[in-house]
Design a protein that fits this description.
The protein has nine helices and twelve strands. The chain is of the alpha/beta class. It folds into two domains: 79 residues, Winged helix-like DNA-binding domain superfamily/Winged helix DNA-binding domain (Arc Repressor Mutant, subunit A); 211 residues, D-Maltodextrin-Binding Protein, domain 2. The strands form four sheets. A five-stranded mixed sheet has the order 4-3-5-12-6, with helices on both faces.
Length: 300
Amino acid sequence: MVDVRGLELLHQLNLRGTLSAAAEALYLSHSAASHRLSVLEREVGVPVTERIGRRLHLTETGVALAACAQRLQREIETTDAVIEQARGTVAGRVRIGLFQTAALRILPQLLSDLREEYPGVVLESTQTLAATALAAVQTGELDLAVVPSYQHHAPAQASGALHHEHLYTDHWFLVLPPDHRLCQATGPIDITELRSEKWIAGETVTHFLSRLCKDAGFEPHVVHRSSEYTVMTTLVSLGHGISFMPIIDELNSLLPPVTLRQLNISGARPTVLGVLRDGSRNRPAVDAVWRLMLRRGRAI
């Protein structure tokens, strides 16, 4: 019989592309992962990987076995769901990944709702980049993720075995230093007026900003990269660039001195999605967090 741990490693290798990344996901050293892979190949009797150049690739057999491992993961989740349902109580650990502004916007209220309505559910949160959160949901390291998207442009990873729903539409603003030449503008600012500006942006901002600027015929000159809300607004307030980001109304009083203006981008609607694996939707604890998260998101 094939060792399930070897299949799990093969599944991670298929998802992540390198043995080092697969080993890290399973908390293995590189040598331990190599040994586990060798054991699996001896058990199978044929190669499951092959080296092409410097990269390790799965053979046809390896791909088929990785698919088997993915099905096993889903069956284990189904087993967990059956056990939780049989207990008749909504309890257990649920892991969620969020990017910073989403965490600020919904996490405190979500935790309060859980404490009041489902005290047996323990929510563990991780602030992380959207791509990392989606990959972690896909591999089972996270149960849920909150990720940015855009109208008619859902993340490519939010498909297949993943289920996603709209949570809320973000409120994005052009963030300017107090003495910027455009601070006196009374209406929405056309993005073409920002062609020569220096920008301060993080992963989420850069993705959306680049698309808008390319549509206007130029590339944004991003000089400072940060995903930290306070870092970005502080740099703007000191005149080191401008930014475009979601602004949280409840935190406006905590912002350094900056000027907020609308961009003339009525065709773009930055939205935020909730994502989870189809296989985890039957777990009562995950379902409880999911429903409360949707309720909070749609109240924004």
